């Protein structure tokens, strides 16, 4: 079973359902990728900061070697970490990440966050995380415009077939559209019924920028933040979501994912469970427009994936 695709503004096709690799433990990453490919997954969403790119690449290589899939059938995403925003660092770190994956190109390469941190040499610590070599959270000097122009070099050199951005707000996107030589193909954002961000979605769709939603299950993805997540019901336990699941003979996760994909977004849920892998990609049902609107009405502007929630005093979403 393979997911439908979304056509990007450069003509490339991106699967509408993929596997997110955040929090995927290194010791199971290769096997999880391999199993997901057997289940029909073709989109894999990784990042330097996840610290598992070598192992994920091993899973891809094994699947290709065993004839389960060709490289051309896969859509591999990775991301530029904050510590490498200086324009002269962008192409070299992309090449390192490709080497870690064992790939010649990424299908999509994103700016992970619109924030520059000081450079940390990979020989000192990799992935560097939010801290500098001295353990401080030190902002860098690269502007988002200079970093994006370096991303355009990644695209022009064929290191990535598509480029994009992640965790950008509407103002940054409007500004980017004024200076970009190559329009971003994708914006990746936290998106779930408690954080719909509909005006941002509308802006991107109007300008031909596809959206990938992460953390589609809302607080379920952030149980370590229970003081914040505990303010609202878990979406898997919400009466509206449970009622829709019962109506359509699906599980709650499928309802949340279909709410996004039916509205034109791609999703990248994470799972290491074979049964959940199968169900997350099995979204062959449609809810009514009224039901989609009901789910959207749960919006509370509640963001979980923000640096201050992890004790990092860099309020990029303030």
TrEMBL record:
Presence of the UniProt keyword Cell division in the record: no
Keyword Aminoacyl-tRNA synthetase among record annotations: no
Pfam families to which the protein is assigned, alphabetical: Aldo_ket_red
Active site: residue positions: 50
Sorted UniProt keywords: Oxidoreductase
GO molecular function: oxidoreductase activity
Family according to the record: Belongs to the aldo/keto reductase family.
Protein name: Putative NAD(P)H-dependent D-xylose reductase xyl1
Species, as recorded: Lineolata rhizophorae
